[in-house]
Request: fold
Amino acid sequence: MSLISIQFFAFLALLLLIYYMVPAKWQWMVPPVFSIVFYLSYGVGQIILILSTILLTYGLGLSLNYVEEKFSALRSACKDREVRKAYKAECTKLKKRMMLAGLLLNFGIWVVFKFTSVFPFSPLGISIYTFIAAGYCIDVYRAKYPAERNLLRYCSFIMFFPHIVQGPFSRYDALGKTLFARHAFDFDHLEQGMLRLVWGCFKKLVIADRMLAVINVILPKDSGYGGIYVFLLFILLPVQLYADFSGYMDIVAGVCHMMGITLQENFAQPFFARSVDEFWRRWHITLGAWFKDYLFYPISMGKSVQKFSSRCKKICPPAVVRMIPSYIALFFVWSATGLWHGSSPNFLLWGWINLFCIVSSMQLKPVYTKIRQRLHLSEENRCWHLVQMIRTFLIFGFAEMISDLRSVHGIMMKCRSLFLEHNWRLLYRPMNLFPGLEERDLLILAVGIVMMIVLDILKEKGYNPYEIIARIPILPRYICYVSLLYAALLLDYAGAGAAGGFMYEQF
Reply:
Protein backbone atom coordinates (compact mmCIF):
# COMPACT_ATOMS: atom_id res chain seq x y z
CA MET A 1 0.00 0.00 0.00
CA SER A 2 1.76 3.14 -1.20
CA LEU A 3 1.66 6.13 1.12
CA ILE A 4 0.47 8.25 -1.81
CA SER A 5 -2.48 6.35 -3.25
CA ILE A 6 -6.27 6.28 -3.18
CA GLN A 7 -6.12 3.10 -1.09
CA PHE A 8 -3.94 4.77 1.55
CA PHE A 9 -6.18 7.83 1.86
CA ALA A 10 -9.24 5.55 2.22
CA PHE A 11 -7.26 3.55 4.81
CA LEU A 12 -6.41 6.79 6.66
CA ALA A 13 -10.01 8.07 6.61
CA LEU A 14 -11.27 4.77 8.06
CA LEU A 15 -8.51 4.83 10.70
CA LEU A 16 -9.42 8.34 11.86
CA LEU A 17 -13.13 7.53 11.89
CA ILE A 18 -12.70 4.43 14.06
CA TYR A 19 -9.97 6.04 16.19
CA TYR A 20 -12.27 8.83 17.36
CA MET A 21 -15.43 6.68 17.52
CA VAL A 22 -14.16 4.05 19.95
CA PRO A 23 -14.11 4.79 23.70
CA ALA A 24 -11.00 6.78 24.67
CA LYS A 25 -9.61 3.95 26.81
CA TRP A 26 -9.52 1.65 23.76
CA GLN A 27 -8.02 4.18 21.33
CA TRP A 28 -4.50 2.82 21.66
CA MET A 29 -5.69 -0.56 20.29
CA VAL A 30 -6.75 0.93 16.94
CA PRO A 31 -3.27 1.76 15.50
CA PRO A 32 -1.85 -1.78 15.94
CA VAL A 33 -4.85 -3.30 14.12
CA PHE A 34 -4.41 -0.89 11.21
CA SER A 35 -0.64 -1.41 11.31
CA ILE A 36 -1.18 -5.14 10.79
CA VAL A 37 -3.52 -4.42 7.85
CA PHE A 38 -0.93 -2.01 6.42
CA TYR A 39 1.81 -4.60 6.73
CA LEU A 40 -0.35 -7.40 5.30
CA SER A 41 -0.83 -5.27 2.16
CA TYR A 42 2.85 -5.97 1.44
CA GLY A 43 2.54 -9.74 1.92
CA VAL A 44 2.05 -12.36 4.65
CA GLY A 45 5.80 -13.02 4.83
CA GLN A 46 6.34 -9.47 6.06
CA ILE A 47 4.11 -10.05 9.08
CA ILE A 48 5.82 -13.32 10.01
CA LEU A 49 9.23 -11.63 9.92
CA ILE A 50 8.34 -8.57 12.00
CA LEU A 51 6.45 -10.72 14.52
CA SER A 52 9.60 -12.81 14.95
CA THR A 53 11.55 -9.66 15.88
CA ILE A 54 8.74 -8.49 18.16
CA LEU A 55 8.51 -11.79 20.07
CA LEU A 56 12.29 -12.08 20.37
CA THR A 57 12.85 -8.58 21.76
CA TYR A 58 9.68 -8.65 23.88
CA GLY A 59 10.90 -11.85 25.55
CA LEU A 60 14.40 -10.41 25.98
CA GLY A 61 13.02 -7.31 27.69
CA LEU A 62 10.93 -9.36 30.11
CA SER A 63 13.89 -11.67 30.85
CA LEU A 64 16.15 -8.72 31.64
CA ASN A 65 13.49 -7.36 33.99
CA TYR A 66 13.07 -10.72 35.68
CA VAL A 67 16.81 -11.10 36.31
CA GLU A 68 17.06 -7.55 37.67
CA GLU A 69 14.08 -8.06 39.99
CA LYS A 70 15.36 -11.43 41.20
CA PHE A 71 18.82 -10.15 42.13
CA SER A 72 17.37 -6.95 43.61
CA ALA A 73 15.30 -9.12 45.97
CA LEU A 74 18.39 -11.13 46.91
CA ARG A 75 20.40 -7.96 47.59
CA SER A 76 17.59 -6.50 49.70
CA ALA A 77 17.36 -9.65 51.82
CA CYS A 78 21.13 -9.77 52.43
CA LYS A 79 22.86 -7.59 55.02
CA ASP A 80 26.42 -8.48 54.09
CA ARG A 81 27.87 -5.68 51.92
CA GLU A 82 30.34 -7.92 50.08
CA VAL A 83 27.66 -10.47 49.25
CA ARG A 84 25.41 -7.69 47.90
CA LYS A 85 28.28 -6.53 45.67
CA ALA A 86 28.76 -10.10 44.47
CA TYR A 87 25.03 -10.36 43.67
CA LYS A 88 25.20 -7.09 41.71
CA ALA A 89 28.24 -8.27 39.72
CA GLU A 90 26.56 -11.60 38.95
CA CYS A 91 23.37 -9.81 37.87
CA THR A 92 25.29 -7.51 35.51
CA LYS A 93 27.25 -10.43 34.07
CA LEU A 94 24.10 -12.48 33.41
CA LYS A 95 22.26 -9.52 31.87
CA LYS A 96 25.21 -8.80 29.57
CA ARG A 97 25.21 -12.38 28.32
CA MET A 98 21.47 -12.29 27.72
CA MET A 99 21.75 -8.96 25.91
CA LEU A 100 24.58 -10.18 23.72
CA ALA A 101 22.69 -13.34 22.74
CA GLY A 102 19.44 -11.44 22.11
CA LEU A 103 21.06 -8.69 20.03
CA LEU A 104 23.04 -11.23 18.00
CA LEU A 105 19.79 -12.99 17.12
CA ASN A 106 17.99 -9.72 16.41
CA PHE A 107 20.73 -8.31 14.18
CA GLY A 108 21.36 -11.77 12.73
CA ILE A 109 17.89 -11.72 11.15
CA TRP A 110 18.64 -8.25 9.76
CA VAL A 111 22.00 -9.35 8.33
CA VAL A 112 20.49 -12.38 6.59
CA PHE A 113 17.82 -10.31 4.85
CA LYS A 114 19.96 -7.22 4.28
CA PHE A 115 23.12 -8.83 2.93
CA THR A 116 21.94 -12.08 1.33
CA SER A 117 19.34 -13.09 -1.24
CA VAL A 118 18.22 -16.29 0.46
CA PHE A 119 14.58 -15.23 0.63
CA PRO A 120 12.40 -14.17 -2.33
CA PHE A 121 11.16 -10.88 -0.87
CA SER A 122 12.65 -7.69 0.54
CA PRO A 123 11.37 -7.06 4.08
CA LEU A 124 9.61 -3.72 4.48
CA GLY A 125 11.33 -1.46 7.02
CA ILE A 126 13.53 -4.21 8.50
CA SER A 127 16.41 -1.77 9.06
CA ILE A 128 14.02 0.50 10.96
CA TYR A 129 12.22 -1.91 13.27
CA THR A 130 15.33 -4.02 13.94
CA PHE A 131 17.17 -0.99 15.30
CA ILE A 132 14.11 0.40 17.14
CA ALA A 133 13.64 -2.97 18.88
CA ALA A 134 17.36 -3.17 19.72
CA GLY A 135 17.26 0.34 21.21
CA TYR A 136 14.30 -0.69 23.38
CA CYS A 137 16.17 -3.73 24.72
CA ILE A 138 19.30 -1.68 25.47
CA ASP A 139 17.20 0.89 27.34
CA VAL A 140 15.61 -1.87 29.43
CA TYR A 141 19.07 -3.32 30.10
CA ARG A 142 20.24 0.12 31.27
CA ALA A 143 17.12 0.36 33.49
CA LYS A 144 15.99 3.51 31.71
CA TYR A 145 12.45 2.15 32.00
CA PRO A 146 10.90 -1.25 32.83
CA ALA A 147 10.05 -3.72 30.06
CA GLU A 148 6.55 -3.51 28.62
CA ARG A 149 4.53 -6.48 29.88
CA ASN A 150 1.55 -6.00 27.54
CA LEU A 151 2.47 -7.72 24.26
CA LEU A 152 -0.15 -5.82 22.25
CA ARG A 153 1.19 -2.46 23.48
CA TYR A 154 4.73 -3.49 22.58
CA CYS A 155 3.53 -4.74 19.20
CA SER A 156 1.78 -1.40 18.68
CA PHE A 157 5.05 0.45 19.35
CA ILE A 158 7.27 -1.62 17.04
CA MET A 159 4.75 -2.07 14.22
CA PHE A 160 3.38 1.49 14.30
CA PHE A 161 2.89 1.97 10.54
CA PRO A 162 3.85 5.68 10.25
CA HIS A 163 7.43 5.01 11.39
CA ILE A 164 7.89 1.50 10.06
CA VAL A 165 8.81 2.34 6.45
CA GLN A 166 11.44 5.08 6.78
CA GLY A 167 11.52 6.04 10.42
CA PRO A 168 11.95 8.05 12.51
CA PHE A 169 13.81 5.81 14.97
CA SER A 170 11.29 6.16 17.78
CA ARG A 171 12.14 5.57 21.44
CA TYR A 172 9.65 3.65 23.56
CA ASP A 173 9.63 6.13 26.44
CA ALA A 174 8.99 9.08 24.07
CA LEU A 175 6.51 7.60 21.59
CA GLY A 176 4.75 5.46 24.20
CA LYS A 177 3.68 8.52 26.21
CA THR A 178 1.71 9.89 23.27
CA LEU A 179 0.84 6.64 21.49
CA PHE A 180 -0.98 5.15 24.49
CA ALA A 181 -2.52 8.40 25.75
CA ARG A 182 -6.18 9.30 25.25
CA HIS A 183 -6.84 11.86 22.51
CA ALA A 184 -10.05 13.81 22.08
CA PHE A 185 -10.96 14.97 18.60
CA ASP A 186 -9.38 18.35 17.84
CA PHE A 187 -10.23 20.13 14.58
CA ASP A 188 -7.03 22.21 14.73
CA HIS A 189 -4.97 19.02 14.94
CA LEU A 190 -6.89 17.59 12.01
CA GLU A 191 -6.37 20.73 9.92
CA GLN A 192 -2.67 21.10 10.68
CA GLY A 193 -2.03 17.39 10.19
CA MET A 194 -3.82 17.37 6.83
CA LEU A 195 -1.89 20.46 5.70
CA ARG A 196 1.42 18.84 6.58
CA LEU A 197 0.39 15.62 4.85
CA VAL A 198 -0.52 17.53 1.65
CA TRP A 199 2.75 19.48 1.81
CA GLY A 200 4.65 16.19 2.06
CA CYS A 201 2.80 14.88 -1.00
CA PHE A 202 3.66 18.10 -2.84
CA LYS A 203 7.38 17.76 -2.06
CA LYS A 204 7.38 14.14 -3.19
CA LEU A 205 5.23 14.35 -6.33
CA VAL A 206 6.02 17.82 -7.60
CA ILE A 207 9.67 18.29 -6.60
CA ALA A 208 11.35 14.95 -5.85
CA ASP A 209 9.90 12.96 -8.75
CA ARG A 210 10.77 15.65 -11.30
CA MET A 211 14.34 15.86 -10.06
CA LEU A 212 14.57 12.07 -10.06
CA ALA A 213 13.67 12.03 -13.77
CA VAL A 214 16.74 14.18 -14.51
CA ILE A 215 19.00 12.21 -12.16
CA ASN A 216 17.98 8.90 -13.76
CA VAL A 217 19.20 10.22 -17.11
CA ILE A 218 22.48 11.75 -15.91
CA LEU A 219 23.59 9.37 -13.14
CA PRO A 220 24.31 6.02 -14.91
CA LYS A 221 28.03 5.59 -15.58
CA ASP A 222 27.43 4.94 -19.30
CA SER A 223 24.90 7.76 -19.71
CA GLY A 224 27.33 9.93 -21.67
CA TYR A 225 26.66 12.90 -19.39
CA GLY A 226 29.87 14.20 -17.85
CA GLY A 227 31.56 17.47 -17.01
CA ILE A 228 29.04 20.05 -15.85
CA TYR A 229 26.37 17.36 -15.54
CA VAL A 230 28.41 15.66 -12.80
CA PHE A 231 28.63 18.96 -10.92
CA LEU A 232 24.88 19.30 -11.43
CA LEU A 233 24.45 15.93 -9.70
CA PHE A 234 26.12 17.38 -6.58
CA ILE A 235 23.22 19.85 -6.45
CA LEU A 236 20.33 17.70 -7.64
CA LEU A 237 20.97 14.62 -5.49
CA PRO A 238 20.79 16.35 -2.06
CA VAL A 239 17.73 18.41 -2.97
CA GLN A 240 15.92 15.44 -4.53
CA LEU A 241 16.68 13.20 -1.54
CA TYR A 242 15.62 15.92 0.88
CA ALA A 243 12.30 16.51 -0.91
CA ASP A 244 11.67 12.75 -1.05
CA PHE A 245 12.75 11.82 2.48
CA SER A 246 11.44 14.89 4.34
CA GLY A 247 8.27 14.69 2.22
CA TYR A 248 7.68 11.21 3.64
CA MET A 249 8.33 12.51 7.15
CA ASP A 250 5.80 15.30 6.61
CA ILE A 251 3.21 12.75 5.48
CA VAL A 252 3.61 10.44 8.49
CA ALA A 253 3.97 13.32 10.96
CA GLY A 254 0.75 14.77 9.51
CA VAL A 255 -1.03 11.43 9.93
CA CYS A 256 0.11 11.24 13.56
CA HIS A 257 -0.83 14.86 14.25
CA MET A 258 -4.39 14.16 13.09
CA MET A 259 -4.57 11.46 15.78
CA GLY A 260 -3.01 13.70 18.42
CA ILE A 261 0.16 11.57 18.42
CA THR A 262 3.54 13.33 18.41
CA LEU A 263 6.22 11.80 16.20
CA GLN A 264 9.83 12.88 16.66
CA GLU A 265 11.13 15.28 14.00
CA ASN A 266 13.79 13.86 11.69
CA PHE A 267 15.00 17.01 9.90
CA ALA A 268 16.00 20.50 11.06
CA GLN A 269 16.76 22.53 7.90
CA PRO A 270 19.97 20.55 7.10
CA PHE A 271 21.09 22.76 4.22
CA PHE A 272 21.77 25.58 6.68
CA ALA A 273 24.49 23.45 8.28
CA ARG A 274 28.01 24.89 8.19
CA SER A 275 29.90 21.61 8.63
CA VAL A 276 29.36 17.95 7.84
CA ASP A 277 29.13 17.21 11.55
CA GLU A 278 26.37 19.80 11.99
CA PHE A 279 24.67 18.55 8.83
CA TRP A 280 24.25 15.11 10.34
CA ARG A 281 22.81 16.61 13.50
CA ARG A 282 20.10 18.13 11.29
CA TRP A 283 19.59 15.28 8.78
CA HIS A 284 18.01 11.95 9.72
CA ILE A 285 18.28 13.13 13.31
CA THR A 286 16.91 9.99 14.94
CA LEU A 287 19.34 7.67 13.10
CA GLY A 288 22.28 9.80 14.26
CA ALA A 289 20.92 9.85 17.81
CA TRP A 290 20.55 6.05 17.76
CA PHE A 291 24.19 5.54 16.74
CA LYS A 292 25.36 8.17 19.24
CA ASP A 293 23.55 6.61 22.22
CA TYR A 294 23.99 2.93 21.43
CA LEU A 295 27.32 2.78 19.58
CA PHE A 296 29.40 5.97 19.90
CA TYR A 297 29.24 6.39 23.68
CA PRO A 298 29.68 2.69 24.59
CA ILE A 299 32.75 2.45 22.33
CA SER A 300 34.37 5.79 23.21
CA MET A 301 33.84 5.22 26.95
CA GLY A 302 34.78 1.54 26.84
CA LYS A 303 37.73 0.30 28.89
CA SER A 304 39.67 -1.05 25.88
CA VAL A 305 39.50 2.24 23.97
CA GLN A 306 40.38 4.27 27.06
CA LYS A 307 43.41 2.04 27.73
CA PHE A 308 44.56 2.37 24.12
CA SER A 309 44.20 6.14 24.37
CA SER A 310 46.33 6.18 27.52
CA ARG A 311 49.09 4.23 25.77
CA CYS A 312 49.20 6.84 23.02
CA LYS A 313 50.21 9.61 25.43
CA LYS A 314 53.89 8.91 24.85
CA ILE A 315 53.74 9.34 21.06
CA CYS A 316 50.85 11.76 20.43
CA PRO A 317 50.21 15.38 21.45
CA PRO A 318 47.70 15.81 24.31
CA ALA A 319 45.09 17.36 21.99
CA VAL A 320 45.18 14.27 19.75
CA VAL A 321 45.13 11.85 22.70
CA ARG A 322 41.93 13.45 24.01
CA MET A 323 40.25 12.86 20.66
CA ILE A 324 41.42 9.27 20.03
CA PRO A 325 38.40 7.61 21.76
CA SER A 326 36.04 9.79 19.71
CA TYR A 327 37.85 9.03 16.45
CA ILE A 328 37.78 5.27 17.09
CA ALA A 329 34.08 5.42 17.95
CA LEU A 330 33.36 7.57 14.88
CA PHE A 331 35.06 4.98 12.66
CA PHE A 332 32.69 2.27 13.89
CA VAL A 333 29.69 4.61 13.76
CA TRP A 334 30.26 5.65 10.15
CA SER A 335 31.17 2.14 9.02
CA ALA A 336 27.92 0.91 10.58
CA THR A 337 25.98 3.82 9.06
CA GLY A 338 27.32 2.95 5.61
CA LEU A 339 26.39 -0.71 6.03
CA TRP A 340 22.94 0.29 7.32
CA HIS A 341 22.33 2.07 4.01
CA GLY A 342 23.44 -0.85 1.86
CA SER A 343 25.73 -3.86 1.51
CA SER A 344 27.76 -2.77 -1.54
CA PRO A 345 31.25 -1.26 -1.04
CA ASN A 346 30.16 2.18 -2.26
CA PHE A 347 28.03 2.62 0.88
CA LEU A 348 31.02 1.83 3.08
CA LEU A 349 33.06 4.34 1.06
CA TRP A 350 30.24 6.86 1.53
CA GLY A 351 30.43 6.38 5.29
CA TRP A 352 34.20 6.81 5.33
CA ILE A 353 33.96 10.01 3.25
CA ASN A 354 31.66 11.47 5.89
CA LEU A 355 34.02 10.25 8.61
CA PHE A 356 37.03 11.84 6.87
CA CYS A 357 35.20 15.17 6.50
CA ILE A 358 34.10 15.23 10.15
CA VAL A 359 37.55 14.31 11.53
CA SER A 360 39.30 16.72 9.14
CA SER A 361 36.98 19.50 10.20
CA MET A 362 37.84 18.85 13.85
CA GLN A 363 41.57 18.90 13.17
CA LEU A 364 41.50 21.86 10.77
CA LYS A 365 39.35 24.09 12.97
CA PRO A 366 42.39 26.19 14.06
CA VAL A 367 43.37 26.59 10.39
CA TYR A 368 39.87 27.78 9.46
CA THR A 369 40.01 30.25 12.35
CA LYS A 370 43.32 31.68 11.11
CA ILE A 371 41.97 31.99 7.54
CA ARG A 372 38.92 33.82 8.82
CA GLN A 373 41.06 36.14 10.94
CA ARG A 374 43.36 36.88 8.00
CA LEU A 375 40.30 37.86 5.98
CA HIS A 376 39.08 39.98 8.91
CA LEU A 377 35.82 38.07 9.10
CA SER A 378 33.94 37.56 12.33
CA GLU A 379 32.54 34.17 13.32
CA GLU A 380 29.03 35.46 12.63
CA ASN A 381 29.83 37.02 9.24
CA ARG A 382 27.05 36.14 6.77
CA CYS A 383 29.40 35.68 3.81
CA TRP A 384 31.51 33.27 5.85
CA HIS A 385 28.34 31.39 6.83
CA LEU A 386 27.30 31.16 3.19
CA VAL A 387 30.70 29.79 2.13
CA GLN A 388 30.51 27.15 4.87
CA MET A 389 26.95 26.20 3.90
CA ILE A 390 27.82 25.84 0.20
CA ARG A 391 30.94 23.81 1.03
CA THR A 392 28.94 21.45 3.26
CA PHE A 393 26.15 21.12 0.67
CA LEU A 394 28.58 20.18 -2.13
CA ILE A 395 30.42 17.67 0.08
CA PHE A 396 27.11 15.98 0.86
CA GLY A 397 26.19 16.02 -2.84
CA PHE A 398 29.49 14.38 -3.78
CA ALA A 399 29.03 11.73 -1.08
CA GLU A 400 25.49 11.03 -2.32
CA MET A 401 26.78 10.50 -5.86
CA ILE A 402 29.28 7.99 -4.43
CA SER A 403 26.48 6.10 -2.65
CA ASP A 404 24.20 6.07 -5.72
CA LEU A 405 26.84 4.80 -8.17
CA ARG A 406 26.95 1.09 -7.40
CA SER A 407 30.50 0.39 -8.64
CA VAL A 408 33.99 1.80 -8.13
CA HIS A 409 34.39 1.90 -11.92
CA GLY A 410 31.29 4.06 -12.26
CA ILE A 411 32.53 6.42 -9.55
CA MET A 412 35.91 6.79 -11.27
CA MET A 413 34.29 7.45 -14.66
CA LYS A 414 32.05 10.21 -13.29
CA CYS A 415 34.85 11.89 -11.33
CA ARG A 416 37.18 11.71 -14.33
CA SER A 417 34.62 13.26 -16.66
CA LEU A 418 34.11 16.17 -14.23
CA PHE A 419 37.60 17.42 -15.08
CA LEU A 420 38.10 16.16 -18.64
CA GLU A 421 34.82 17.08 -20.33
CA HIS A 422 34.67 20.79 -21.11
CA ASN A 423 30.97 21.50 -21.59
CA TRP A 424 30.53 24.37 -19.14
CA ARG A 425 29.19 26.59 -21.92
CA LEU A 426 25.90 24.76 -21.40
CA LEU A 427 25.32 27.21 -18.54
CA TYR A 428 24.15 29.62 -21.24
CA ARG A 429 21.51 27.08 -22.35
CA PRO A 430 19.98 25.95 -19.03
CA MET A 431 17.22 23.86 -20.63
CA ASN A 432 19.91 21.49 -21.96
CA LEU A 433 21.12 20.94 -18.40
CA PHE A 434 17.92 19.12 -17.43
CA PRO A 435 17.43 16.20 -19.85
CA GLY A 436 14.12 14.48 -19.27
CA LEU A 437 12.25 17.66 -18.36
CA GLU A 438 10.19 19.91 -20.58
CA GLU A 439 10.12 23.68 -20.08
CA ARG A 440 6.79 23.45 -18.22
CA ASP A 441 8.20 20.88 -15.80
CA LEU A 442 11.29 22.99 -15.19
CA LEU A 443 9.13 25.99 -14.29
CA ILE A 444 6.98 23.90 -11.91
CA LEU A 445 10.14 22.47 -10.33
CA ALA A 446 11.63 25.93 -9.83
CA VAL A 447 8.47 27.22 -8.13
CA GLY A 448 8.32 24.14 -5.89
CA ILE A 449 11.95 24.49 -4.80
CA VAL A 450 11.46 28.19 -4.02
CA MET A 451 8.45 27.29 -1.84
CA MET A 452 10.49 24.66 -0.02
CA ILE A 453 13.39 27.08 0.54
CA VAL A 454 11.11 29.84 1.85
CA LEU A 455 9.48 27.44 4.32
CA ASP A 456 12.88 26.25 5.59
CA ILE A 457 14.09 29.84 5.98
CA LEU A 458 11.04 30.63 8.12
CA LYS A 459 11.68 27.56 10.29
CA GLU A 460 15.37 28.39 10.62
CA LYS A 461 14.48 31.88 11.83
CA GLY A 462 12.21 30.39 14.49
CA TYR A 463 8.82 30.99 12.88
CA ASN A 464 6.12 28.33 12.97
CA PRO A 465 4.60 28.19 9.45
CA TYR A 466 1.36 26.69 10.76
CA GLU A 467 0.87 29.57 13.19
CA ILE A 468 1.45 32.03 10.35
CA ILE A 469 -1.07 30.24 8.13
CA ALA A 470 -3.61 30.09 10.99
CA ARG A 471 -3.70 33.90 11.05
CA ILE A 472 -4.96 34.01 7.46
CA PRO A 473 -8.74 34.48 7.21
CA ILE A 474 -10.58 31.21 6.74
CA LEU A 475 -11.68 31.66 3.11
CA PRO A 476 -8.28 32.52 1.57
CA ARG A 477 -6.68 29.96 3.89
CA TYR A 478 -8.79 27.14 2.53
CA ILE A 479 -8.25 28.38 -1.01
CA CYS A 480 -4.52 27.95 -0.34
CA TYR A 481 -5.15 24.42 1.02
CA VAL A 482 -7.14 23.40 -2.04
CA SER A 483 -4.55 24.95 -4.36
CA LEU A 484 -1.73 23.03 -2.69
CA LEU A 485 -3.72 19.79 -2.86
CA TYR A 486 -4.53 20.48 -6.51
CA ALA A 487 -0.85 21.10 -7.27
CA ALA A 488 0.26 17.95 -5.42
CA LEU A 489 -2.20 15.67 -7.19
CA LEU A 490 -2.43 17.20 -10.67
CA LEU A 491 1.14 18.42 -11.14
CA ASP A 492 2.78 15.14 -10.11
CA TYR A 493 5.43 13.90 -12.51
CA ALA A 494 4.36 10.54 -13.94
CA GLY A 495 7.63 10.20 -15.85
CA ALA A 496 9.52 9.40 -12.65
CA GLY A 497 7.73 6.10 -12.20
CA ALA A 498 4.95 4.94 -9.92
CA ALA A 499 3.84 7.75 -7.66
CA GLY A 500 4.41 7.22 -3.99
CA GLY A 501 7.54 5.08 -4.20
CA PHE A 502 9.96 6.47 -1.61
CA MET A 503 13.72 5.99 -1.84
CA TYR A 504 14.07 4.49 1.66
CA GLU A 505 11.09 2.12 1.46
CA GLN A 506 13.18 -1.05 1.27
CA PHE A 507 15.55 -0.11 4.09
Remarks:
- The chain is about 70% helix and 0% strand.
- The CA atoms of residues 274 and 386 lie 8 Å apart.
